[in-house]
Amino acid sequence: MLPAAILILQLGSLSPPIPQAEADLAQSLRAEQPAACPASGLAVQVLGSGGPVAEAPRAGTSYLVRVDGRPRLLIDIGSGAYLRFAEAGGNVTELDAILLTHLHADHSGDLVSVLMSGGFEDRTEPLPVIGPDAAPRFPATSDFLSGLFDPDRGPYAYLGGYLDGSEDKPLLAPRDVATDNGDGAPVTLMLGHGLTVTALPVHHGAAPALGYRVDYGGKSVVITGDQSAFSDGFETALAGSGPQLLFAHFVIPPGPGQPRALHRPPDAIGELAAKLGARRLVLTHNMNRSLARLGDGLAAIRQSYAGPVTVAYDLDCYAP
Ligand SMILES: [Zn+2]
Hints:
The chain has one domain (about 20-315): 4-Layer Sandwich (Metallo-beta-lactamase, Chain A), CATH 3.60.15. The protein has 11 helices and 14 strands. The chain has helices at about 5-15, 20-30, 80-85, 105-110, 110-120, 140-150, 160-165, 230-240, 265-275, 290, 295-300; strands at about 40-50, 60-65, 70-75, 95-100, 125-130, 170-175, 185-190, 195-200, 210-215, 220-225, 245-250, 280-285, 310, 315-320. Strands 6-5-4-3-2-1-14 form a 7-stranded mixed beta sheet. Mean pLDDT is about 95; it is low at about 1-10.
């Protein structure tokens, strides 16, 4: 058994402190925030700007897409984002869909909590829940939901009404998108309120995973989801598309010793932003380990991308 001091040191190394200069740099790159999300047009509110490690003040990854101020799409709902959903004025009744990039817990951990909250509302329409298909150790999105709420064996069997619409629960309408280890074809989804969403398979290690493009009123926003730099189909499909906003997950600092099969290092984030012609790059899914070397990460991004770069904080709102 490891001595306690060594164990604490190892655990502590997962969440290194952010040097003050880097913390100040992150704040300086935060976009100036309006008093409230815009009351008209498209906006993306970052509900959770953090990752899998519990690091205040960031909740796990989540986005709320608003149209004319109203909450219409919930994209991922990582641990802690349930509270941000409430703080943002989110509610399940007004959602056109819940979109999941993948089923890692830092992207889906608060899903049951949000659904349960919706069970206290008066939504009558089925609720689409769209996400990736299955792979070893990862259920398809539909099986994830049916497993949770299975009336016989589900850990939340008592909430089985989500599977059949009984007990005043909103009926879930799951849809699995084929990912083919990141090589699957993009799928276009028409989701109401003038929103067109394209689900784009990406490569994220062993996890079936998607990125999303959201189009509204001639403007587009791209959310990479968790993806490695081996996401060739994603890059090709969106090359030169010029999204107004590109949300990229800033999980790892530059240099060796990082999980490159799972995430884009900063230089590959810059290459992606340049290839897409993004008008603005927003770094989110921030972690202490990446923010602690934010200056180095920015320099790596700048090798390819010269546009504006912003660091997201929970509840920050962006209008394309
Ligand atoms: Zn992940």
